[in-house]
Amino acid sequence: MCPPTLVRMERADAARNRARILEAAAELFAARSPHEVTMDDIAKAAGVGRGTLYRRYPDRASIAVALLDEHERELQERLLRGDPPLGPGAPPAERLAAFYAAMVRLLEDHAHLVLGSEVGRTRFETGAYGFWRAHVRSLLVAAGTPRPDALVDTLLAPLAPEVYVYQRSDLGLGMEEVVEALTRLTRVL
Amino acid sequence: MCPPTLVRMERADAARNRARILEAAAELFAARSPHEVTMDDIAKAAGVGRGTLYRRYPDRASIAVALLDEHERELQERLLRGDPPLGPGAPPAERLAAFYAAMVRLLEDHAHLVLGSEVGRTRFETGAYGFWRAHVRSLLVAAGTPRPDALVDTLLAPLAPEVYVYQRSDLGLGMEEVVEALTRLTRVL
DNA sequence: CAATAAGTGGACACAACGTCCATTTAAGCA
DNA sequence: TGCTTAAATGGACGTTGTGTCCACTTATTG
Fold this sequence. Notes:
Two copies of one chain form a homodimer.
Chain A: H1 12-31, H2 39-46, H3 50-56, H4 60-81, H5 92-117, H6 122-125, H7 127-142, H8 148-156, H9 161-170, H10 175-185
The structure holds a DNA duplex.
C-alpha cells in the first residue's frame, strides 16, 4: 500500500535525467539555431530515450521555457521588490526605461533560448509575457495614460526576440543603440 | 531549332495551373490556420501533382507571398505617389499615423496570409519589410530624428502579424483601439 | 527483502517534406 | 496538318522528425 504522502516526491533517477536533459538542451541551443535541434538530438545528447524526454517535455518550447525560468524569475523579482528605477519608487517613465534596458540585457544573454521557446504566437501564451504585460500596464496606469490596454502590447512588441536578433545580427546595431531607441518610446507616457 | 525569342513565354497549361494553385491556396488559408495547410493539401485542392506545385513554390511562404503581392503593391504605390497624408506632402508624424492606419487595414484583411508567409524571422527577409522599413526611415529622417536606424524596427515591431492577431483575437480589442495606440507612438518624432 | 508504482527507452506508426523521372502536352516549323 | 522538341506534369519514393505505446527496469517503502 502506498502511504498517504501529500507531496509526491520526484524519484532520484527522474531528477538526474531531468538535469541531464536541461544541460544537454542548453548546450545544443547554444551551439545551433533552435529549429535545427530535434527532440531526438536532445534525447541522444542527454543519454536518455525518446519516451523519457517526452514524459516531461512535450516539445522544444517547454524545454526552453524551463531553461529560461530562473533568469526571468530573477528579473521579475527585481521589478517587484528591487531598487528604483527598476523597482518601485521611480517615476513610471524611468521605470519603463529601466525595464527596457533590463529586458535587452536578458535578450542579449538568452535570445537563443527565447527563440527556441517563443516562436511567433507562442510568445503570448507563456506566463512570462503575462508578467511583462501586467508590469508595463501598471506603469501606464500609474502615469495616468488613458486606455492602456492596446498600448501595452505595442510597447512590448519591439522586445520580440526576432526583432532584437534582427537588429543586432542583421543590422549590426549595438545593444546601446537598441536601448536608446526603446527609451525614446517612453515619451508616449 | 529554337528561334531566339528574348522573352520566354509561360506555357498555357503552366499559367492555368499557377492560377489554380493560387486560388486553391487562398481558399485553404482563409479556412484554417496556415500551419495546418500542407503542401499536399494545396496540390490536391488545386488538382495538380506534388511536383507541379514544388516547381513554382518551394514552400508555403512563397505561395502566401505571391497572394499578398498585389495588396502590398497597392499600398506601396499609395505611399509613394498617393494623396497626403499617406502620400508625400503631409508632415512626417501625420504620414506615419496614416501609414499605421493603412497597415492595420491590411492586417485586418490579410493577417492570415501574412501569418502564412511571415513566421518569426522570415518577416524581415521579405521585400515588403524592406519597403516599409525604408518608408518609415525616410519619415524619421524628414522629421529630423537623430539616429533613426534602431528606431525604425522598434516602430515597425507592433505591426508584426502575431501581435495584431493577439490584440484583436485574444484580447478582443477593436481595430480603432489598435490604431489609436499606434498613433500615440508617432509622438516619438 | 519483497511489493509496488514510478520511471525508462526504443520500436513503431504516422505525417509531411522534397526529389526524381517516365510520360504527357503545348508551341513552333515544314 | 503532321512532326519535333522542350517545357510541364504528377505521383511514386526515400527521408526526416514527431509523438505514442508498452514490456522491462529501478527506486522507494514497510
